[in-house]
Write a structure and sequence with these properties.
Layout: H1 7-13, H2 22-29, H3 37-48, H4 53-64, H5 74-84, H6 92-103, H7 106-122, H8 126-133, H9 138-156, H10 167-187, H11 194-197, H12 203-213, H13 215-223, H14 230-247, H15 258-271, H16 277-294, H17 303-321, H18 323-329, H19 335-355, H20 361-384, E1 400-401, E2 404-405
Antiparallel strand pairs: 1-2
Length: 411
């Protein structure tokens, strides 16, 4: 078996031996050819119906329910039958607690852990990067892509965000359809090397994304001094299990517990984390985009402020990802900034230790964290003119659907 890039994390933090057998690895890799048939069918419907009709039908069903759509296409009926059926294992109280736990990470979660551990570390998965590289100019799109991702992340991890008609639920479904549209576009490209890169946005990659926002996010937060009880972690994992269900992750790949997530992370690390030059290019784009996006308006044009924040943020990346991965991605290497991150983590750990014993302090931290990250992400989206409808691809008709050329005049 290959040696996963995140060897240190997997060896020292994982609960026991999480390595898979050869048969389990083979079964996992079989999902690299699997897409999301219900969502892919809706994407075909949107492309097929003229004049934006498909998107309007989809949006009405999303906002009002499928019964509000007169004579809905069968693709919509089947899709909404799936997402409207809440799985038996969903616990509303755990969803609420999970959202409050993640909200408590506040600006640390939004400005440091989510971009510099979850997104940045995800660039080690080179096959998944092939889609990103082909969906827009990396340098000009990176700030908007980060703002839109951050906005979605805040939506789904805010208390009350995952009810059927709540923002986090609807945004996740929009992202799922966007993924299906991108899959259709990538399948129609002559330069998509399926033998080398697998199917675009496949089930293995969707599962990897889920792990980056759940287990890896918790790990990065703990590295910054934030403290979570076993119950906190279980609630956060439960929330992301439901988000993964809504994202279209196959039920056989959805981690039910933190232990499940560790085993799945090993599978991802052993088979997907094969960084290449695209990994470096995406990492460089994120390094360039992060500080200007996150700095307050008065400091955005300050070269000194940009330099300091960039080096501080990616010192965190280096500490979490380890020297081997950080060096490959071209991560800044400064012991002074790494010491500053460790100093911050120590101070946060002390404050967190106090929070855990002071009555009412946890709820105060949850409210404060939720408010601070909400204010920041709204500014980010406003400055970048982010697309919260996730419908940009409606104007880009694929040349193929399900591997077949579209007929002239279709859509």
């Amino acid at each position: 078996m290959s040696k996963p890039p995140w060897t240190f994390v997997l060896r020292h933090l994982a609960p026991g031996d999480i390595r898979a057998t050869s048969a389990q690895l083979k079964a996992f890799r079989s999902f690299s050819e699997a897409g999301d048939p219900p969502a892919d069918a809706v994407a075909e419907m949107i492309a097929r119906l003229p004049g934006g009709t498909g998107r309007r039908l989809f949006e009405r069903a999303l906002h009002e329910g499928i019964d509000a759509v007169e004579d809905p296409p069968s693709e919509l009926v089947d899709f909404f039958a799936e997402i409207d059926a809440v799985p038996y294992w969903v616990d509303a109280d755990l969803l609420d607690r999970g959202a409050r736990v993640i909200s408590r990470t506040g600006r640390i979660g939004l400005t440091t852990v989510m971009p510099c551990t979850s997104l940045y570390g995800g660039y080690l998965a080179s096959r998944a990067n092939k889609t990103l590289v082909r969906t827009g100019d990396l340098d000009t799109m990176a700030p908007r892509r980060l703002a839109e991702t951050a906005s979605w992340w805040v939506d789904v991890t805010s208390p009350g965000g995952l009810g059927r008609f709540d923002t986090g639920f609807k945004q996740t479904i929009r992202v799922r359809i966007m993924h299906a549209q991108v899959r259709a576009v990538m399948r129609g490209r002559d330069d998509w090397d399926r033998d080398a890169w697998d199917a675009p946005i496949n089930q293995v990659q969707l599962t990897g994304t889920l792990l980056l926002f759940s287990l890896v996010m918790l790990l990065g937060s703990r590295a910054m001094g934030l403290r979570f009880s076993a119950g906190d972690r279980a609630a956060a994992m439960h929330l992301w299990r439901y988000v993964g269900h809504l994202m279209g992750v196959h039920r056989d790949l959805l981690p039910a517990t933190e232990a499940d997530a560790w085993r799945t992370l090993w599978l991802e690390a052993a088979t997907e984390y094969l960084p290449d030059q695209d990994s470096r290019q995406l990492a460089r784009s994120l390094q360039d985009a992060a500080a200007p996006l996150l700095l307050p308006p008065a400091l955005k044009n300050s070269p000194v402020a940009r330099h300091v924040l960039t080096n501080y943020l990616f010192a965190h990346s280096r500490l979490v990802l380890g020297k081997r991965n950080a060096d490959f991605l071209g991560t800044p290497d400064s012991r002074a900034y790494q010491a500053a991150v460790l100093g911050t983590a120590a101070a946060v750990f002390v404050a967190e230790s106090v929070r855990r014993v002071v009555p009412g302090a946890t709820r105060l931290a949850e409210r404060r964290g939720l408010h601070r990250r909400t204010v920041l992400v709204r500014r980010m989206v406003r400055e970048q003119r982010g697309d919260r409808t996730h419908s940009r691809l409606d104007a880009h008709r694929p040349t193929r659907l399900n591997g077949r050329p579209l007929a002239e005049g279709t859509g």
